[in-house]
Write a structure and sequence with these properties.
The protein is of the alpha+beta class and 296 residues long. The chain is built from 13 helices and six strands. A three-stranded antiparallel sheet has the order 1-2-3. The chain has a three-stranded antiparallel sheet with strand order 4-5-6, with helices on one face. β1 and β2 form a beta hairpin. α1 crosses α3. The longest helix is centred in the last third of the chain and has 19 residues. The chain starts with 5 loop residues before the first helix and ends with a helix.
Length: 296
């Protein structure tokens, strides 16, 4: 079994907000598997661990461009929050978003070949990116994008520069904008319960089963508890079934129906979502520096 280090415990605690000893116990039970340890904590502590597990672990900016029925959402990463506020970096991200909307790249790699000049660098996006890395002194990369050009209406919403949403819809502009803001706040994973991925449902069912099994109730009751938990989960993570943030007396689906509006789909980006960020051991780093200084 791999050794459970203090840095591993600290990383799990940062992701889950669980007590330190609970994190250590979970990692020990999971034999060092971080993802499995998170699941164990969710069984023991409920949804608290799951909610905190989505914390941002990398820096960068989300940008959106909407021109009629054509639009784009893009995430560009950097190493520190300081650089994410740099004017040159922000200008670069804005230009990249516009180029994606205008040119329909096949993938992230294709964006690098598009023409762009900025801060004396060019003539391509990749040349500007490399130039800014040299100028600012920090790595940056275009991580992901979503382009819309299907002929439907588009609404976008940016919560600062860290959360971005584009909604494709037919109907009322105000209702669609409200949905975009709702998505940013409530972070649904799918449009409807039918659109939630089987993998996510299976994972939730497994967690619910482990939690229900601890109740000690008969198998038929446990099965009902599990299915009830899964159905509750599906409603919580699907946009149309969520309670509308501006009116807790109706669901998003009911609000849209009242506004004669249909949402076809949406894209939600949160800066750094899903990126593993290196956890530095500050004490070890200081000790190493002291040792190096003594050796001089």
């Amino acid at each position: 079994m791999p050794a459970i280090t203090a840095s591993m415990v600290a990383e799990l605690r940062a992701k889950t907000d669980a007590p330190m000893m609970e994190c250590k116990k979970a990692l020990t039970e999971a034999e060092g598997d971080m993802e499995r340890a998170e699941e164990i904590l969710r069984v023991k502590l409920g949804n608290k661990a799951g909610k905190a597990a989505s914390r941002i672990t990398a820096e960068g900016v989300i940008a959106a461009v909407v021109n009629g029925s054509t639009g784009a959402l893009v995430e560009v990463n950097c190493e520190t929050d300081f650089v994410s506020k740099n004017d040159s970096f922000l200008a670069f991200v804005k230009s990249v978003a516009q180029l994606i909307a205008d040119n329909n790249p096949a993938d992230v790699a294709a964006i690098g070949a598009y023409p762009l000049s900025q801060d004396g660098f060019g003539p391509t996006v990749e040349d500007v990116r490399k130039g800014l890395i040299g100028k600012i002194g920090e790595n940056m990369s275009i991580r992901r994008f979503k382009r819309y050009a299907g002929g439907g209406k588009l609404a976008s919403y940016l919560h600062g520069t860290r959360i971005g949403v584009v909604v494709e819809f037919e109907g009322d502009d105000v209702a669609a904008k409200d949905v975009a803001m709702h998505v940013a706040a409530m972070k649904p994973v799918a449009l409807s319960t039918a659109d939630v991925s089987p993998e996510l449902i299976d994972k939730e069912r497994k967690i619910a089963a482990e939690k229900a099994a601890e109740s000690g109730k008969p198998a038929e009751i446990v099965n009902k508890m599990v299915e009830g938990s899964v159905q509750k989960f599906l409603k919580e993570v699907s946009l149309l079934n969520q309670t509308f943030v501006k009116n807790d007396k109706q669901t998003v689906e009911q609000m849209l129906k009242a506004a004669s509006t249909t949402v076809k789909g949406f894209t939600l980006y949160v800066v750094g979502e899903g990126i593993e960020k290196k956890v530095d051991d500050f004490a070890a780093e200081v000790a190493a520096q002291v040792a190096a200084a003594k050796g001089q």
